[in-house]
């Protein structure tokens, strides 16, 4: 499974953090190139059946902004 975050407008971020159910699962630096868009991707891998909430947080020197959480339901095959 892949989770992506996009920033289409505004001041670019210098850091991206992804949380799965409130637990940090990825953190990486981003190259700020305002006013261009930014794209960050995390490969979460296979998850067992269940419901998961993912939240990306983008940060720069001015502060941090969380994205709206995304709920993903994984069903058994």
UniProtKB/TrEMBL annotation:
It comes from Microbacterium psychrotolerans. This is Fibronectin type-III domain-containing protein. InterPro entries: Ig-like_fold (IPR013783), Ig_E-set (IPR014756). It comes from the Bacteria.
